[in-house]
């Protein structure tokens, strides 16, 4: 879990960078379309779509773009077929890499992702080679100034959370995917602010990385997330705080 906590910080930094590059709209449109296709165009009954709409509004996507993407998903207007699937492999020090893809051209995506793996010394693997190392869980991360561990336990467990964990610089609340929306709403209702709230793939074990491999890993994941067909990248890398500080100070 510590690996996921530290990687969330890198991911948030990368998401801000993506937004500046204008790539975030493309990824959000794909997510809106797939969410609407899978469970309908009503956000009140489709939690995944509700989150996609909220994420789109945070990035100031125009309402017309949001509505058009949803209508493509429901079939109200024509649009290219977007497939959703995973790609898997290994990075530095045997770190497991699980990538969520949303693409309208799987052959193009395969070639591009394979090139990124090769460029960074990774190995693209067969389906299922690393997925078994991850569990699908709801995940919320809180700065320790947001609330005490006791309050998070009281609110979270009452709403259906599985666990509350102290990870040094922050507190984490873990839920089942089905309980995530209810737990998130409980914290929203109490006005307890979280830094991260998502249904994520949580590694069962983590691989600690030294500075050199950590730098390679960060560049590797950044290259993957730069690809417009990559929606999310999950890894069991654990970059210790002191290593992250060393990397950041060298920039």
List the helices and strands and how they pair.
Layout: H1 2-21, H2 24-39, H3 47-58, H4 63-74, E1 83-90, E2 96-103, H5 106-119, E3 123-124, E4 134-143, H6 149-159, E5 163-166, E6 170-175, H7 180-189, E7 196-203, E8 207-208, H8 211-226, E9 230-235, E10 237-238, H9 241-249
Parallel strand pairs: 8-10
Antiparallel strand pairs: 1-2, 1-3, 2-9, 4-6, 4-7, 5-6
Q: Would you mind describing this structure in some detail?
A:
- There is one protein chain.
- The protein is an alpha+beta fold.
- It has three domains: 2-74, Arc Repressor Mutant, subunit A (Orthogonal Bundle), CATH 1.10.10.200; 85-125 and 207-231 and 245-249, YebC, transcriptional regulation domain (Alpha-Beta Plaits, 2-Layer Sandwich), CATH 3.30.70; 133-203, YebC, transcriptional regulation domain (Alpha-Beta Plaits, 2-Layer Sandwich).
- The chain has helices at residues 2-21, 24-39, 47-58, 63-74, 106-119, 149-159, 180-189, 211-226, 241-249, and strands spanning 83-90, 96-103, 123-124, 134-143, 163-166, 170-175, 196-203, 207-208, 230-235, 237-238.
- The strands form three sheets. The protein has a four-stranded antiparallel β-sheet with strand order 3-1-2-9.
- Strand 5 and strand 6 (170-175) form a beta hairpin.
- Helix 2 packs antiparallel against helix 3.
- The longest helix has 20 residues, at 2-21.
- The mean pLDDT is 87.
């Amino acid at each position: 879990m510590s690996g996921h906590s530290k990687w969330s910080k890198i991911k948030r930094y990368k998401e801000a960078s993506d937004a500046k590059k204008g790539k975030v709209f493309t990824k959000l449109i794909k997510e809106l379309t797939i969410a609407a296709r899978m469970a309908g165009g009503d956000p009140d009954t489709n939690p995944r779509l509700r989150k996609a709409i909220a994420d789109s509004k945070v990035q100031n996507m125009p309402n017309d773009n949001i509505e058009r993407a949803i209508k493509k998903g429901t079939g109200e207007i024509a649009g290219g077929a977007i497939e959703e699937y995973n790609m898997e492999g290994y990075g530095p020090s045997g770190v497991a890499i699980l990538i969520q893809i949303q693409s309208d051209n799987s052959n193009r995506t395969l070639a591009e992702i394979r090139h990124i793996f090769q460029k960074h010394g990774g190995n693209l693997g067969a389906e299922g080679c690393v997925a078994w190392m991850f569990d699908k869980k709801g995940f919320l991360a809180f700065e320790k100034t947001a609330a005490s561990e006791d309050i998070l336990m009281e609110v979270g467990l009452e709403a259906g959370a599985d666990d509350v964990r102290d990870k040094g610089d922050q507190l984490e609340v873990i839920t089942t995917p089905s309980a995530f929306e209810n737990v998130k709403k409980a914290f929203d209702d109490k006005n307890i602010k979280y830094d991260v709230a998502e249904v994520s793939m949580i590694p069962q074990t983590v691989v600690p990385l030294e500075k050199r491999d950590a730098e390679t890993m960060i560049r590797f994941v950044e290259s993957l997330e730069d690809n417009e067909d990559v929606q999310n990248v999950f890894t069991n890398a654990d970059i210790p705080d002191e290593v992250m500080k060393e990397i950041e100070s060298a920039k």
